[in-house]
Amino acid sequence: MEVFRITAPRAKEVPVIVSSPHSGIRFPDSISIKAEFAGNPDDTDWFIDQLYDFVPDMGATLISAVYNRWVIDLNRDPANKPLYSDGRVITGLVPLTTFNGAALYDLNPGEKEIQIRIDQYFRPYHDKLSELISEKVKKFGKVILFDAHSIRKNVPGIRPEPFPDLILGDDEGRSASDSVITAAMKALTDSPFQVAHNEPFKGGYITRNYGDPEKNIHALQLEMAKLNYLDDSERLYDHARAGQIRKVLENLFTNLIHEVSI
Q1: CATH, domain range 4-261
Q2: Looking at residue 24, what is its pLDDT?
Q3: Which positions of the chain have pLDDT values less than 70?
Q4: pTM higher than 0.85 for the full model?
């Protein structure tokens, strides 16, 4: 059972891993989620793995999820500790609602079902991510883990205002070195897009769990508004929009690769 996909570097390998944990769209037959949501999993990071499919051509490794985040959220603490405590809607390890609070189940999954999902979907992804990180550190002495995400421009369940175009998260400077953060922010702020830093998102479980700059493991999260690369419905891939944001992302990875090559 394939629970993630790996795209290996197609150019000279560099110590950069791009993770796309929320672009998966599959649901196992055993999942009893309401049909209207299984057919339209709106909280999905639609086509993020496609948007970043250029990174292997720059020497990076791409890992992307196969199963949807509503099966189990690969960017949540396996102990189900909340990421934020400011009153926003926070979906858990196994989400029971959408971002806007709609119930996903008639009967919520119990502890046994949740443990099955951890074993079958969560652990394999994170075991592979840990393996990739260890391999890069062993080979290069350092690694940048880049966690790629997207979100609707407006999600009232999280906050009433529209989100900025691009939001870089680094757990308030704890998940990456100052130089790596500066390299990333320069590429973003040099772009025509609206940029925020650690607000309203500072990185999820992946960024916070793996980032350890003292061990030369630098983790960043980039959240972006879906309108940057999707059509006005925020559901279909828009090649013109995607082409513009990919130029920014290419500059970003150029900066990051230069930083880890010094």
Answers
A1: 3.40.630.40
A2: 97
A3: none
A4: yes
